[in-house]
Design a protein that fits this description.
151 residues, 2 domains
Amino acid sequence: MLSALCSVLCVLISKPSPSPGLKIAIHFHEMPFIFEKLEVYKKAKDFAGKTLILCKDIKDRNIVNQLVRASISIPLNIAEGQGRVHSREKKQFYNIAKGSLYECLPLLQICADINYIDQIRYQELYELMNEIGRMLAGLIKSVDEREMGRI
């Protein structure tokens, strides 16, 4: 339904205007949010999905609740940071995402220690977290560099 509506709108809006040379085209399905293009967002979303799947097998509700909240917080804060205009706000949300990432590590370590997850799954998630952490540090650094360039 939505796809058909977008197609109809694109056809209607894409028609040439009465002014020669002026053509307006809006392709809603081709206009992603900026954060969706960020590799760190994609990886953080992947990590959150893998964590949610992992949590189905964990019986301890306290660990599950904390791990789910922390892992989902990572892509959410990256997205919210991208939506902010001011550098200080962007950095604040990226740092919150980084803190949530760090919060996940001891939870996963505890899960591995008490055999809620096997070492292979733990190592896979650990490597993904390490990569996300490096990417978030780079994102924060890029905001700092842009901010310094404006001063």
